[in-house]
Amino acid sequence: MDSTGLDRYYNQRVAWKSCDHAELDAAGARCADVTVPMNYAEPRGRTITVAISRLKATDPGRRRGVMLSNPGGPGGAGLDVMLTIRKAMTPEVTARYDLIGLDPRGIGRSTPVDCGWPIGSMLRSGGVDRAAFDRNTAVQADLARRCADRHGSYLRHVSTRNTARDMDVVRGALGERRISYFGWSYGTYLGAVYTQMFPGRADRFVLDSAVDPKAWHTATLASMARPNEAAFDDWAAWTASRDAEYHLGGTARQVRAVVEDLITRAAADPIRIGRYRVDQHVVPMVPFVELDDPRKRAALAGDIRLLVDAANGKAVQPSPSLVGILQFIYEPTAQLHNSGQAAVLCGDAAAPHDPDWYWRQIQRDRRQNPIFSAIANNLNACAFWPAPAEPRTAVHNTVPALIVQSTGDTRTHYQGAASLHRAMPNSRLITLADVNVHAIFGNYPNPCVENTINTYFRDGTLPHTNITCQEH
Domain Peptidase S33 tripeptidyl aminopeptidase-like C-terminal spans what residues (predicted)? Predict the structure, then answer.
């Protein structure tokens, strides 16, 4: 790599401007576009821009530096995420850091990948039988083709490793020796990759709801089946205890049977609800989306009730929560995850190409995980993607970090956080016990978690040992 060619990126002048974003502008944030090479191996070649925002430290006299961030996904636009995260920060923390939001390359305002897909997301269930699986396979091949036709060589350079390099250019352009960092979900993988690639540049890193770096990415998706089934059982018991309200069954087994039957019915005859025809590929996505937080239990019960009523021929008005899920899945919107998510996932690590391999995985896992096996093990556009430009990053370093994880996380399972902790032995692991929640700090209030994180950001003190926090 031509380090001389990179000097102009690290030494560029950052021109701050209005964010043209109502909430950021109201909060006093300023935004900028940072120029980075599309291909770091050819720094004198084509360039792209990465959009950042800054909420300045509230006490310049106590300022420590900058804190970058990522909201997860991958594919989540992060320009405004610090507006949410800082609500959980103490005044002592916001006094010390310029809080930096960033749209990762390929996402949001950062030279976005928009493949012109006819649907919103590639993530969906493979269906109940091989014919449905094969139809989904054809859809996924078409999605990958559209991306290759529209973006060509750029796709090979949309990756976590290059986003980590972009973060380091941002560090240099802001005149900082090191960065601190907060990331949710996929953002923990990005943060871990940064510590591996730039260990001397990492200051205080908090990785919330952690990805297992050894499993990224096909195995990460597959690992979601079991915790989702467990969370579903918890939800089914909760719903059964409220049968007078939802009429989905008086036992958890009855509630599960209703949902499994709903999937079968949607396979035979897609459910008309509003302007959508909800088929077997989408019905299981409703609980999948809403099982990431126990505060969504009522919304999920209500949405299943709506789908059952619609399947029975009743005219129903879809709820805001159900509309949001269906829009995400069916409607192409560049500002959501969509094709940008595919670019990052597929650009990070090669996926198996043989559809039969995925079908065997689904069938092998379906008995244990009847609702979610066909989501977690399903083939997606990555099966038809060009080979990644670089190998996946192996994370194994001694950078200190704070890893935060709930035991019932349905997106990034607890064992993945334990694996990341082993890969970063100088880290500490905060466990939030007996809660099915994904993304904790700034999202799911817990004084124990918040106090530990704020203490670390304030003065750099990690707990002496791993700790467990309780719900109450």
Answer: 375-469
